[in-house]
Amino acid sequence: MAGGRVFSCNNTNSVGGSNNLSVLLQSQRVPSSSEPMDPLFIPRPGSSPYSFFVSGTRSMVSFEDVHGGNRSFFRSFDEEENGDEDLDEYFHQPEKKRRLTVDQVQFLEKSFEVENKLEPERKTQLAKELGLQPRQVAIWFQNRRARWKTKQLEKDYDTLQASFNTLKDDYGNLLKEKDKLKQEVLQLTDKLVMKEKNNSELSDVNTVCQEPPQKPVDSDSPHSSYPFEPDQSDTSQDEEDNLSKALFQPSSYIFPKLEDNDYSDPPASSCSYGFHVEDHAFWSSAY
DNA sequence: TTGTGTTTTATTGCCTCC
DNA sequence: GGAGGCAATAAAACACAA
């Protein structure tokens, strides 16, 4: 026996002595494999609805009182007249496993819902109510806790799985967003380069011509009326607006993480939009 | 009926707590 | 050291398809 624990059959559901044995009925019988799980117990008048006594034909009985031991076995009351031979046979028959009745299980389930741990007093009470061995009640609770734990693990797993799927989706969306922003940055960078190029070409022209301007050149003014003013048609007002928006919108501060030089350094010139693209501190802090 | 997978009851061994 | 809890496991009982 486990840990030196004793599985004592001390059931006290005594049913009147039909023979000279003070038969202590353990309130269970063994259903045969083909037998339906009909209730084994009939409520005893005056007792709780879950106090039972054996009504079946095959019951485990204890001769504790008579033989002073803990012997238990399966006894067919239909065959009591067979006498000592059967007794001997049953004494040497290993105890079979028995299922609890639906009622017993329901009662235990309710009790488990209230409290899944079993204090000795409650165990005894339950055993008494159900006509089971306290040990059986303890075992049932132990197994029930194990089942509950398994279910809980399954629940936790499902929760984690759902959480993982959400995160995976979010990650996928972020990757898409990142690609989109990357494309945007590339386009804007190209535009900047073009603009710088045009500006430098204009300067060259000015130097070569050495022609004093009719009016002061305001290089900062994008709408100068200077005759050699570059054609700005490639950068429409709308596009410029978009450019400004793209660069200054909060979301645009989050630049995609650059991977393994998949993104060349920004142009080493100052951008006229308020930040220095070569500012590595900014770029690195941006992601 | 039988083979097989699942569930339930029970045991064993180890661990912790008092 | 004993009582009780838990994990692992055995084995009976059960469900169900073929």
Automatic annotation (TrEMBL):
GO terms for biological process: positive regulation of DNA-templated transcription. GO terms for cellular component: nucleus. Residues 199-243 are annotated as: Disordered. It is found in: Nucleus. Keywords: Coiled coil, DNA-binding, Homeobox, Nucleus, Transcription, Transcription regulation. Its main location: nucleus. It comes from the Eukaryota. The keyword GTP-binding does not apply. Residues 200-209 have a biased composition (Polar residues). Pfam families: HALZ, Homeodomain. GO terms for molecular function: DNA-binding transcription factor activity, RNA polymerase II-specific; identical protein binding; sequence-specific DNA binding. Residues 91-151 form the Homeobox domain. Residues 93-152 bind DNA. Residues 150-198 form a coiled coil. Belongs to the HD-ZIP homeobox family. Class I subfamily. Transcription factor. This is Homeobox-leucine zipper protein. It comes from Gossypium raimondii (Peruvian cotton).
